[in-house]
Amino acid sequence: MKIQHLDHSCLLVDISGARILIDPGNFSASKVREIAPTGLDAVIITHQHADHCDTDLLSEILAANPRAAVLAEPEAAAQIVGQADGPAAGPGQAPARGKEVVPLPAGSSYQVGQVKVSAIGGLHAVIHPDIPRVGNSGLVIEAPDEKRLGVTGDSLVPEPEFQDIDVLAFAVVAPWSKMSETIDFLRNTRPRIALPVHEGIVNQNGRPIFLTQATNLAPDATQVRDWPEDGIVII
């Protein structure tokens, strides 16, 4: 399995002959446009917020990858096809109007070739009690004879499916979390490899603070692995 970090929470995953792009948001737009991924089998959106689903970027991706399936948390799916208002609907025409978008609620799964994509969780982390929570579909991606990959989206709930998983992309910093919660999440899930994402909200001076503490205080069984310069990790 090859995982490429395209800034913030966007991941390009090549696994068992399938190519999957996850959460192409506005903090990832420059890198995604630089890479210009083609041959995509699926684009997956964990939730509706713009840093995970940039409507203009999604339109460009789908134009270049017309055969790609689009899987999205149900609230985001309704917005993407223009059936509901919200961040993922965009200011103009919905990015996937006229294209089938598969709702991916928690508890459901979808097959992309040999790859099984399962959705877990269901809710975004609490930002503030006065801000309504939106849906969030965490992911488990697996295929025969491959390592299992988990993607939290915007949640630090230690879901059972994340326990002792081979690889887990986790939000190392977020406006809805504090450092102690991130460390406790790693201790409660104990992934073999933890890959930091969602760091687009901090600059290069602040990022090492969060990453260092997560690395030093993670459980012994967990290797917090930073991304190399090219953003590519082979598992």
Automatic annotation (TrEMBL):
Residues 7-198 form the Metallo-beta-lactamase domain. The keyword Hydrolase applies. SUPFAM superfamilies: Metallo-hydrolase/oxidoreductase. The keyword Membrane does not apply. It comes from the Bacteria. Transmembrane segments: none annotated. One of its GO terms (molecular function) is hydrolase activity. Pfam families: Lactamase_B_3. This is MBL fold metallo-hydrolase. It comes from Ancrocorticia populi. Keywords: Hydrolase. InterPro entries: Metallo-B-lactamas, RibonucZ/Hydroxyglut_hydro, UPF0173_UPF0282_UlaG_hydrolase.
